[in-house]
Amino acid sequence: MSANTTTTADGQAPAKQGVSLPQPAAATSNAKIMRTAGVILLAIGIAAPFLSGNFLIFQLTMMMIYAIAILGLNILTGINGQFSLGHGAFYAVGAYTAAIMMDQFGIGYLWTLPVAGIICFVVGFLFGLPALRLEGVYLALATFALAVVTPQLFKLSPFEHWTSGVMGIVISKPDAPFGLPLNPDQWLYFLTFAIGLLAYVCARNLVGSRTGRALMAIRDNPIAAGSMGVNTPLFKSLAFGVSALYTGVAGALGAIVVQYISPDSFTFTLSVALVVGLVVGGVGWLPGALFGGAFIMFVPNIAEELSKGLSGAVYGLIMILMMYAIPTGLGGLLKAALTALSKRSMNR
Amino acid sequence: MELLAQQLITGIATGGIYACMALAVVMIYQAIHHLNFAQGEMAMFSTFIAWQMLAWGVPYWLVIPLTVVVSFAGGVAIERLVIRPLGDAPVLSHIVVFIGLFAIINSLAGFIWDFTIKPFPSPFGEGSQFGGLISNHQIGMIAVTMTVLVMLFLFFQYTRVGLAMRAAAENPASARLVGIRVGWMIALGWGMAAAIGAVAGILIAPIVFLEPNMMLSILLYGFAGAVLGGLTSPTGAVFGGFMVGIIENLAGTYIPEIGGELKLPIALFLIVTVLVFKPTGLFGRTVVQRV
């Protein structure tokens, strides 16, 4: 989550354009900048809950939760090249898994996270199978339909015994364990922080691994990837599964932090927000997820402050203007800035 | 038997609305190869404009053409001001811009006319024909959608501008070479899509009631219709829209588990099934790609 090391995309830059000689030196200086930025972010992240009020801590926690979900979406869209406008559905599945386990079976909240992840992995993998036949807009359309339908699916009467229908489920907030001197908000913040960090490291290693290269090869040229021996259908479904796993864990965390879920917490606005966060943060740039999470958490509030009645319109306007100004998101902007910077230091 | 007939007619009537939405979606898809996720909100806004004019006491026969003209201008303006500057930006940027448009239009409508649910009078009055088998509004819906569809067919098949629009969608480079102003043809497509959406909105508003979020499910059914018929075929989209209307009503009536609450998931089911088994839809043509 925090940008404590170089991203894969940056790390690969010298390999791709290995013609010019000074490039590796530039890449190291970039790496240095990124590492410094990561350490600063990490320090801010650890200090923040001691310096801010409980509501801000809650907001920061939600921001990181969104970032985890966006990270999952980034693996699917940015790394594997498949669109999804319906990730709110996986978020909802994760949230409901956690809530039902805690509410019906009285299982501890920490155990719900891996279970939510596994269930979402299976659901995502299964949804990925029909999605294999869909590309581009068609996949966007099918997942958009999934996003619109999600709240209705959770209202269905056959599941009402589990989901409590429209009423929703109330969850109690867990206290800090081992007598740690933290209030519940701070504890949940650090829990989310740790899981987010773990999720980021896993995602980075996944992208840097053989599997990650296969996923990127499929994104760049599925036919060539297939002829190189990559099992395209398997990896595409796997990408869907892993992506859903991330989003599901985020959903479970979200349910615990918000302490209440109902079908209408997961309207298509949520799915749409995740996509917006992904694009704003930068498609394919993993640390961008944090910025995306910040955008979808705080910009609507800023919009509300600018104009109460027209907050939606202001938010929409900011989105559109962002797309005009930086079509590749913050990640693309940063990359361009770093390239310019290293070029200048080389000329000196 | 009477229930079946009644449900069929209801299906055809609402199917006409879905057909209009599907057609609007397909027109824009053919022009810019992107799905307009804000199509439903545009139609909703047009419907509010019509409601406002009715509230000011403008007679109904004048309200409809006025709304259509205003919507047409609005559609052209959106294309010129918002979509055109995007150019060849990646698909996801387009999607975000459509989402932004969605938020802006939705919030504007809520700001101007607030989010309370408003009844919308039918232009065809209350009452029904053939012993309650079909309401006047349903007859009107079917008649109006049919008229719109036939007029569009004639426009595309027999007028110069219609031919130019088809050429611009089919092959923009060649169309430009023979002197067609492709950019304006795309804007025209947006205008017409907005106008068709306005008609659909006015016709469906007496049934679903008027509020800023009324078109989301209608748009989803429209998408389902467009996919069923094929995103590359306007005729297919119209056919698909009617099919979706009929399937929705029959499934809601005869499959007890579905009932009213599951009607929306039918759209999802239809979209996924059609895309998995026949990705080009029933009438779409296969796009062959060179490696």
From TrEMBL, chain A:
Q: Bias category Polar residues: which stretches?
A: 1-10
Q: Which CDD domains does the entry mention?
A: TM_PBP1_LivM_like
Q: Name one Pfam family in it.
A: BPD_transp_2
Q: How does it sit in the membrane?
A: Multi-pass membrane protein
Where does the UniProt entry say this protein principally localizes? membrane
Query: InterPro entries in the record, alphabetically?
Result: ABC_transp_permease, LivM-like
- Tell me if Transmembrane helix is a UniProt keyword of this record: yes
Its subcellular locations are:
Cell membrane
- Stretch list, region Disordered: 1-21
Q: Where does the chain cross the membrane?
A: 33-51, 57-76, 108-129, 136-154, 187-207, 238-261, 273-300, 312-338
Print the keywords alphabetically: Cell membrane, Membrane, Transmembrane, Transmembrane helix
Alphabetical list of PANTHER family matching this protein: HIGH-AFFINITY BRANCHED-CHAIN AMINO ACID TRANSPORT SYSTEM PERMEASE (PTHR30482), HIGH-AFFINITY BRANCHED-CHAIN AMINO ACID TRANSPORT SYSTEM PERMEASE PROTEIN LIVM (PTHR30482:SF20)
Q: What is the name of the protein in this document? A: Branched-chain amino acid ABC transporter permease
Recorded source organism is Hoeflea alexandrii
Automatic annotation (TrEMBL), chain B:
Spans traversing the lipid bilayer: 6-28, 60-79, 91-113, 133-156, 184-208, 267-288
Location in the cell = Cell membrane
Keywords from UniProt, A to Z, are:
Amino-acid transport, Cell membrane, Membrane, Transmembrane, Transmembrane helix, Transport
Among its keywords, does the record have Translocase? no
Classify the protein's membrane topology as the record does. Answer: Multi-pass membrane protein
One Pfam annotation reads: BPD_transp_2
What PANTHER family has UniProt attached to this entry? ABC TRANSPORTER PERMEASE PROTEIN (PTHR11795:SF451), BRANCHED-CHAIN AMINO ACID TRANSPORT SYSTEM PERMEASE PROTEIN LIVH (PTHR11795)
Q: Which family does it belong to?
A: Belongs to the binding-protein-dependent transport system permease family. LivHM subfamily.
Name-wise, this protein is Branched-chain amino acid ABC transporter permease
Species this protein is from: Hoeflea alexandrii
